[in-house]
Design brief:
The protein has 269 residues and is mainly alpha-helical. Helix content is 65%, strand content 7%. Helix 5 packs across helix 7 and helix 6 packs antiparallel against helix 7.
Length: 269
């Protein structure tokens, strides 16, 4: 197996993810469908070169997807571009799954690259919060204002090279909600929640910093989605250590506190 080609494939895959929704770069003029299509084709070809063996189940799934795409194109319930874009994501995801399942080395290389990418995004998100919360700095260094479709006019955005934040009045205090390089803090919250859970499941092999940084970045999104995922994770983590007589005195009050916190954030979001 060619390690360099494998790393190149995964790097191109991460770049493709960055220039695709829900990342904001997907809506910038110079990252159009043409670039995503070109990258998608290259990634699919490279994934095929890395693992070209097809099992009967793989052939069946590809055949089934082909039939579904044909039906979608015939009935055209959505635009052709949207149909092809949606199923291209499915094809790439399934091809990646086949490769990662085929051998442990591919999985380790991909996870190492993904964790490093998510670590950079998480650290940048935390820095953006600190800069925007404690200073008046607001500079569109990457010229995002050239694409008005990026922004929701109802939000008060602040920008820097480290990402977006959105000023939010929580009644008793105004805080900057981390949006990172996503349109909404909700999307950023889902991204950090995914990386937090992934890092936790790999804690025997990956440094704890990946989990901690993703957790902190996710908390700073003030996203109800992230807080809900964190609550479920927290419950699953502490249950083995709880004695039956502690359920009423500790667990229930903590759950109620989180419930009202999530509800409050959701209502103000």
């Amino acid at each position: 197996m060619n390690i360099l080609r494998l790393k190149t494939t995964f790097l191109l895959l991460i770049i493709l993810a960055i220039v695709s929704p829900p990342f904001i770069f997907s809506q910038i003029d110079y990252f159009g469908r043409e670039i995503r299509t070109f990258l998608g084709i290259i990634v699919l070809l490279l994934l095929y070169l890395e693992y070209s063996k097809f099992k009967s189940t793989d052939i069946f799934i590809f055949f089934l997807l082909g039939i579904i795409i044909l039906l979608e194109l015939i009935f055209q319930k959505s635009s052709i571009n949207n149909i092809l874009s949606a199923y291209a994501v499915i094809f790439i995801a399934f091809s990646l799954f086949r490769l990662l399942k085929s051998n442990k080395l591919s999985l380790e290389i991909f996870l190492n690259l993904w964790f490093r990418f998510s670590l950079i995004v998480s650290i940048a998100a935390i820095i953006s919060f600190l800069i925007h919360q404690f200073s008046s700095f607001n500079a569109d260094i990457l010229n995002f204002n050239s694409s008005p479709a990026l922004f929701n006019p109802e939000y008060d955005y602040r920008m820097s090279i480290f990402g977006f934040t959105i000023n939010k009045n929580f009644g008793f205090v105004e805080l900057e909600r981390v949006s990172s390089f996503f349109n909404e803090p909700q999307y950023a919250g889902m991204f950090f929640a995914f990386n937090m859970l992934l890092a936790k499941n790999r804690n025997k092999l990956m440094p704890r910093k990946y989990f901690v940084v993703s957790l902190l970045a996710g908390l700073l999104t003030f996203s109800s989605t992230f807080y809900l995922v964190f609550l479920v994770f927290l419950i699953s983590y502490i249950i083995p250590y709880i004695k039956p007589n502690q359920i009423k005195t500790i667990v229930i009050p903590v759950l109620l506190m989180f419930f009202f916190l999530i509800s409050y954030i959701y209502l103000l979001a």
